[in-house]
Amino acid sequence: MTNTQLSLIQIDNYGPWTVTPEPRREMDLQTLQSRLFADLAQFVGSRDGYVFFTRFDNMVAVTNGLDEADHELLQESIANRYPVTISLGTGVDASPVEALESATAGLQTAGSAQDGDRREVLSGDVLAESDRMPEDLQIAHFDVNDATGKYTDRLNEFDSFIQIEQGYATLMRYLREEYGALSFFVGGDNIISVCPDMDEADYRDAIAHVEREAGVELKVGVGTGRTAHVAGFAAKHALEVCREEGTDVEFDRPHVEVADD
Amino acid sequence: MTNTQLSLIQIDNYGPWTVTPEPRREMDLQTLQSRLFADLAQFVGSRDGYVFFTRFDNMVAVTNGLDEADHELLQESIANRYPVTISLGTGVDASPVEALESATAGLQTAGSAQDGDRREVLSGDVLAESDRMPEDLQIAHFDVNDATGKYTDRLNEFDSFIQIEQGYATLMRYLREEYGALSFFVGGDNIISVCPDMDEADYRDAIAHVEREAGVELKVGVGTGRTAHVAGFAAKHALEVCREEGTDVEFDRPHVEVADD
Amino acid sequence: MTNTQLSLIQIDNYGPWTVTPEPRREMDLQTLQSRLFADLAQFVGSRDGYVFFTRFDNMVAVTNGLDEADHELLQESIANRYPVTISLGTGVDASPVEALESATAGLQTAGSAQDGDRREVLSGDVLAESDRMPEDLQIAHFDVNDATGKYTDRLNEFDSFIQIEQGYATLMRYLREEYGALSFFVGGDNIISVCPDMDEADYRDAIAHVEREAGVELKVGVGTGRTAHVAGFAAKHALEVCREEGTDVEFDRPHVEVADD
Amino acid sequence: MTNTQLSLIQIDNYGPWTVTPEPRREMDLQTLQSRLFADLAQFVGSRDGYVFFTRFDNMVAVTNGLDEADHELLQESIANRYPVTISLGTGVDASPVEALESATAGLQTAGSAQDGDRREVLSGDVLAESDRMPEDLQIAHFDVNDATGKYTDRLNEFDSFIQIEQGYATLMRYLREEYGALSFFVGGDNIISVCPDMDEADYRDAIAHVEREAGVELKVGVGTGRTAHVAGFAAKHALEVCREEGTDVEFDRPHVEVADD
């Protein structure tokens, strides 16, 4: 069974800061946001977690394997190098959306995201090292069938983007409502979903729904692991199998080591 | 009348690169993409243009004021510092979507986005300095009414994100289809649109459509200018007026200097 | 005759900030400093200037071609993205050290580098566009003869570094005292000097002095230009000529185009 | 007794790359180097190690606590995001210079730093977790007495820099020759030394030597610890004691917790 540890990363009082004392240059804000995300991606990613940019002022991370001290260090390091600070809430649950619900609740209880006095909150639970298991995470990596041939090389870039975006908007809502899975657009034609235990039929159902509703054809590789990186890497390999074999859904197969005798 | 210069920024052969010789760590790809975007935002932004991350492997920039030499320098500098290269296509038109159509066509003619031999293409037209006018650009800056109170402080982060995202998906499609405007999510609850000449009724129409279809309430500040920064900054100030006065649509008003005598 | 425009970039009140409320993690400070330098290098460099990291809290830039508005924009953009602000002083003179003297004096007059109330000073003169000439800058690019063979592949890294460092310490002092030139270590075995009009004999003199005092053998390419990039690029090409022809001092020669008839 | 683990970080074949096919823009090289260093500082620093930029194409890191897998991950992540790759050599010894000697030898044995076929070497030993002790590292943090009052606020920036630089050049050589300690300039008026077991008299000797030879007055805080961060942080606190009490050499004192009863 999955046991997902999620962290909500929230820039403290960011909205008001962006217009104080008057609006700041948009490209400076874009630079700040994307570099902050990149730094989080390196910190969390080099500890085998995943971070998604979501709304940039609120980001969601899969942090199985990171403990409270790691979260504190991240908070301290960001405060040392940026003009803004971050609050962090963590939660653990078999259902990703429930884990995020806990993570979010911790910050909400501490005050509003736009409360100038609420800074660098750190709240919530992490998974004890002794409770961690090889199947704590199920990660699905979707992409769009032949996006380059059908969209990028044919339509203007915005019309290509609309196709991908509508596919994403449909998938994100469906997987959240039906399964409690959280789906994130990660660039190109790629979507990564943090999922509870779902089987092949569930993924076929989701793909069919997106094709029906948005006319976008997806395929998906699915991996499991003790960390987001392990599960996500397995998912990428499974997606490569889809590409090679022309299939729609592939789970990573256990690499069986055959003994000599 | 508007005269929008758009540049399509396309990472050359990026998809294949991300899985060669085998899939690369996802957080390294995320870091690479977001830092590349940040560098583009600084280069273009400090020349008063705007860049939007769109799909990250394909980005759209508003580049009125940047000439061919600027585009070449950008291309050279990225090639010197990244493991990937970029192709650039430019286009100019009263209609943003038509400008992007031209910009995209230049790259498509040169070959596929996944053609390993098609590298560092630079194609298309730029607006001659002598043709540039103070109303070349119309930029609209939307945000969601009380997003913090209604979503961020109440729902879990993913459910907040779904609301914002569905509002964005609806707006982007409507403005593109009805007006040829290009809309980009820029973080938080903010959407920036690059528009043709649109009037107050047009913006009210778009806002009403989004509320009807997605249940998301938007307001918008609109600015015009010779550059994206000037137009966008005026739009931000107009949006501040919306916030102060509780209005839905504001255009930046000329700052009239009253003489003493 | 040279006409060098130099800018002193000083982080405001940095020393006290690094230990308030208590000492900050050293690697966060190192990250902050080197990324700030990188951002300055991109801003100034993409406008054909040069920046040197010097002491990191005080940096020296060659800014021929950048006007006061460019300096203001840089200041604003850094303040938007970093937890620290910068003051900028500019100066212009045939002698680099005199230009820097003026640039520094502007900030010193405004208050101490560690005065908490002295923030974002912008002072000094820039070269009027109409006064700029193709020989405003003379840049010399030195490197160490066979540094890889003699040091890097033979000694431990610190002992290699000591050799390079002692060569640099000797050269920087000599060129400053004898000629008013400013020399900066730029990594590897490379030193870049911002020079007044110096001739081949002057450079031979400096190279001989360093060999005599520090036992380090240098060669140098020298370029002139309207901007640091043009002069420095010519210097790099001249240094390539030294490498190919085994010479010690080369000036960039005008590229003569020979007509067919 | 100290037991220092040092890693040599060497950019593979960097010199030739910077001039192939022709010289690259200097500010792009400076940006690349300083950002690469910043990324190493974050990776190593968030694992409680230290990295020094040294010559930028060769950097020295104190890596007690980082194992071979950490080094491999660092190598992979850099290769995914930069146009260059790095080789890493590690060594362990009571004497810092001997540790670096081992670290360097591993790379030298594998080939020249400018051998195009020698890429991503990883060689050398790391300290077993079971052998790590609370006094493995001794870190000294030096600064210049009243550098702002004596230099920064009085001299032009280059002349200030010359003073700091000559003080550093003298200290680095003396500590290396007399004690096998490795000293690195870290910006401002700060020098950090990685030392073997040295006592108060040794530090007084070094400070006196620098004052005599270079006329630069230093003070120093010294810390010990299981990691570079712990030792270096203790050194920073000790240096604060120097500042408050006007002393020249301070060792971090154990923080005695006094019980209530």
Automatic annotation (TrEMBL), chains A, B, C, D:
In which domain of life is the source organism classified? Archaea
Known EC number = 3.5.4.29
Which reaction(s) are listed as its catalytic activity? GTP + 3 H2O = 2-amino-5-formylamino-6-(5-phospho-D-ribosylamino)pyrimidin-4(3H)-one + 2 phosphate + 2 H(+)
Flavoprotein as a keyword of this entry, yes or no, is no
**What is this protein for, i.e. what is its function?**
Catalyzes the formation of 2-amino-5-formylamino-6-ribofuranosylamino-4(3H)-pyrimidinone ribonucleotide monophosphate and inorganic phosphate from GTP. Also has an independent pyrophosphate phosphohydrolase activity.
Family membership, please give it: Belongs to the archaeal-type GTP cyclohydrolase family.
What is this protein's name?
GTP cyclohydrolase III
Taxonomic lineage is: Archaea, Methanobacteriati, Methanobacteriota, Stenosarchaea group, Halobacteria
